[in-house]
Backbone:
């Protein structure tokens, strides 16, 4: 199994490298450090969200409320600071409480009320967005407060010429990688994803684990949102209505994290993000029209899902669980 | 306001006169019932429904605030059905409106086609249809909003002035589209290509859709700047989106080199972005002015004896060019001022 898993990741990596080579030969200025940084930067938010999504998908769940959580929490923080005159510190704390609450509700509904994750989070996304639009902010584009040190830092600072956005992505990737690899929590995540029933019989705290995963994923979404707001000098809640959630799933599935759980890791997300980045950057340079871009992206997602179901076939013994199985 | 004052004046005069002799006042015609009665009673109890693209952004919130105020003042019913960027939800809302038969429906169209047939059905059902700022291919009773071709021509001309013949620049420009199928986008694109086509020194190096998303505008601009470090100008569809392009240009340290032209409702947010140097020119279609024009045409449509679809009128709202100099000497509107 391990060998086959490597294959999907390998195929995607090879594809990304091949496209890189083709673009470098065909498009002048593709293989410059500036363009590579722009390329990685343009998909870093997607990558950060992919880390959050990857975590729940490995544990055989899914979080479709990810974008809503990101958009509403950060818009609220920005609205509090720019319109209601709350200081950034307390506002950030309120935002954190808000996303933790969303994660808790998601987790509790999935773990204790045993509602499948796909329905819970689909509905929660709508609830979160509705609450935001109804009570938390007035207009759907919120600007970052002027002269705020935090947003200036996240948006403009560089480390050895690499923008903070990319640094944030890499640091988060490292943290998630270590958590999955070296901690008991990480091993439990894989055990649950591989076979929830067995994990439970073996005495793993499956239900608290599900709650914890969703809380962590919500916090990652919050971090992604803060970085996003910093780089675009604002947050548009309209992102919720875009196809971004599918792009996040694209990154996760493309990289080779099976939707049936228990497989893959941070490396897969990095590879998936890289391929999407190369693809988007190349298409922008070639000036491919919007509709064709979407078509190409969705065909690739479809292919990735097909490949996923061929090389990660459903395990008859562990499929059809009441929870998390999509 | 003036109307209110004249009514108040008429009333005070009428009351004052009535102490002397009510009959005398009426004889003098100071209660002005010939004008007042058909106006106020003609509007009272009428029903108006507004279907925006979505609430919650400067344009629709601005119009709605102004329209609500007049509706409350004149005693007609004003309702908002918010489809929240979903054409599908909007279609359902309009279908429901056809069954309800209000007197007037105000429609903000997501693209040139989607609601066109439904609007014809509304007209057939006797509902007058006022299209606001984004029109369909089928004209209905009224269109109040920007002339998008003109907006596009002004934007493109401004760029030609900066990047065209004799400017000593590369002549390279990038186009940032909004929603590819929206009326604003298609008419503006027509204007851009027309003007740029007439000026061969202008080279269009990118034409990409940012779909109203500033983050996407930023990513596209970043990539374009990598390919064309000598880019001279960017022309975009909407200020709220193109602020992302401005951020990318600023991050590349090319704010002085790249001239960014866009259009918008002229709100304080847009003006702030000009002050910050993120945008250079906003062709503003002036939301408060559009709101007042909407109010005027609502009254006209509600009072007019013409049947739905009988007369088709258009009012292209005036445009303002907002630049750094303009912003320094003018006030931009905020939502709180309109409420």
Residues:
């Amino acid at each position: 199994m391990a060998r086959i898993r490597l294959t999907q990741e390998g195929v995607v990596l090879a594809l990304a490298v091949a496209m890189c080579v083709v673009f470098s030969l065909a498009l002048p200025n593709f293989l410059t450090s500036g363009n590579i940084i722009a390329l990685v930067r343009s998909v870093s938010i997607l990558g950060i969200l992919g880390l959050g999504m990857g975590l729940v998908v490995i544990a055989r769940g899914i979080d479709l409320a990810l974008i809503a959580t990101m958009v509403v929490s950060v818009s609220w923080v920005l609205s509090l600071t720019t319109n209601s005159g709350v200081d950034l510190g307390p506002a950030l704390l309120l935002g954190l409480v808000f996303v933790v609450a969303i994660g808790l509700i998601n987790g509790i509904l999935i773990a204790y009320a045993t509602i499948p994750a796909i329905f819970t989070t689909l509905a929660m996304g709508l609830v979160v967005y509705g609450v935001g639009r109804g009570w938390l902010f007035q207009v759907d584009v919120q600007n970052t407060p002027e002269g705020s040190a935090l947003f200036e830092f996240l948006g403009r600072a560089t480390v050895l010429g690499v923008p903070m956005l990319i640094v944030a992505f890499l640091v988060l990737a490292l943290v998630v990688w270590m958590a999955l690899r070296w901690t008991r929590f990480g091993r439990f995540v894989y055990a649950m994803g591989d076979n929830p029933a067995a994990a439970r019989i073996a005495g793993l705290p499956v239900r608290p684990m599900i709650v914890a995963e969703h809380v962590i994923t919500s916090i990652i979404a919050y971090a992604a949102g803060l970085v996003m707001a910093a780089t675009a000098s604002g947050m548009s809640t309209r992102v919720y209505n875009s196809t971004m959630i599918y792009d996040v799933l694209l990154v996760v599935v493309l990289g080779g994290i099976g939707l049936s759980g228990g497989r893959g890791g941070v490396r897969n997300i990095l590879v998936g993000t890289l391929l999407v980045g190369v693809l988007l950057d190349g298409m922008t340079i070639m000036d491919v029209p919007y509709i064709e871009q979407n078509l190409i992206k969705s065909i690739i997602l479809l292919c990735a899902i097909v490949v996923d179901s061929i090389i990660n076939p459903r395990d008859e013994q562990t499929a059809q669980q009441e929870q998390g199985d999509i | 306001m003036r109307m209110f004052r004249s009514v108040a004046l008429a009333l005070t005069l009428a009351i004052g006169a009535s102490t002397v002799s009510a009959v005398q006042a009426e004889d003098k015609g100071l209660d002005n019932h010939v004008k007042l009665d058909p106006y106020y009673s003609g509007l009272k109890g009428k029903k108006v429904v507004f279907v925006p693209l979505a609430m919650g952004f400067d344009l629709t919130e601005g119009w709605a605030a102004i329209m609500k105020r007049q509706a409350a003042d004149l005693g007609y019913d004003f309702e908002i059905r918010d489809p929240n960027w979903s054409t599908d939800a909007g279609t359902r809302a309009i279908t429901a409106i056809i069954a309800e038969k209000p007197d007037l429906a105000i429609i903000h169209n997501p693209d040139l086609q989607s609601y066109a047939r439904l609007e014809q059905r509304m007209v057939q059902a006797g509902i007058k249809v006022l299209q606001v700022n984004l029109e369909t291919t089928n004209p209905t009773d009224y269109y109040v909003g920007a002339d998008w071709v003109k907006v596009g021509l002004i934007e493109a001309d401004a760029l030609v002035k900066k990047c065209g013949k004799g400017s000593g620049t590369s002549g390279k420009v990038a186009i940032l589209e909004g929603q590819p199928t929206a009326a604003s986008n298609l008419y503006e694109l027509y204007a851009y290509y027309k003007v740029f086509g007439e000026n061969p020194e202008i080279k269009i190096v990118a034409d990409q859709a940012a779909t109203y998303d500033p983050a996407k505008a930023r990513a596209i601009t970043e990539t374009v700047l990598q390919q064309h470090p000598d880019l001279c100008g960017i022309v975009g569809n909407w200020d709220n989106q193109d602020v992302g392009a401005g951020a990318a240009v600023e991050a590349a340290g090319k704010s002085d080199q790249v001239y960014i032209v866009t259009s918008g409702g002229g709100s304080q947010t847009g003006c702030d972005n000009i002050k910050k140097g993120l945008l250079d020119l906003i062709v503003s279609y002036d939301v408060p002015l559009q709101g007042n024009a909407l109010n005027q045409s609502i009254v006209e449509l509600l009072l007019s004896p013409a049947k739905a679809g009988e007369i088709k009128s258009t009012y292209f709202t005036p445009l303002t060019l907002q630049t750094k100099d303009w912003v320094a000497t003018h006030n931009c509107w905020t939502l709180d001022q309109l409420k």
In short: Chain B touches chain A at residues 54, 56-58, 61, 84-86, 177, 180, 205-209, 211-215, 218-220, 222-227, 240, 243-244, 247, 251, 269, 272, 276, 278, 335 (CB under 8 Å). The mean pLDDT of chain B is 89.
